[in-house]
Amino acid sequence: MFRRDVGHPPARFVEAARLDAARRMLVDSPTPLQRIAYFCGFGDASTMRRAFVRNLGINPVDYRKRFRTTAAA
């Protein structure tokens, strides 16, 4: 039913929510990658990195460098 109502499976929805949270933390805070991964439910930085590359085509370190706000730097 979830897939029918939302348009994709629950796991994909959860991963997208985790990515959104991680993306915000990467650009808005100096929090280390390992902590961001843990806080966002990825477990570790390598799992988060794989999700970033698979979904966004960029790793978290490069994402942070590209999109970080000056207030967070």
Automatic annotation (TrEMBL):
The record places domain HTH araC/xylS-type at 1-66
SMART domains, per this entry?
Answer: HTH_ARAC
State if Transcription regulation is listed as a keyword. yes
Official protein name in the record: Helix-turn-helix domain-containing protein
One Pfam family per UniProt: HTH_18
Q: Which Gene3D superfamilies would you find in this protein's record?
A: Homeodomain-like
- InterPro entries from the xrefs? AraC_XylS_family_regulators, Homeodomain-like_sf, HTH_AraC
- Taxonomically, what lineage is the organism? Bacteria, Pseudomonadati, Pseudomonadota, Alphaproteobacteria, Rhodospirillales
Q: Which UniProt keywords apply?
A: DNA-binding, Transcription, Transcription regulation
Q: Which PANTHER family match?
A: HTH-TYPE TRANSCRIPTIONAL ACTIVATOR RHAS-RELATED
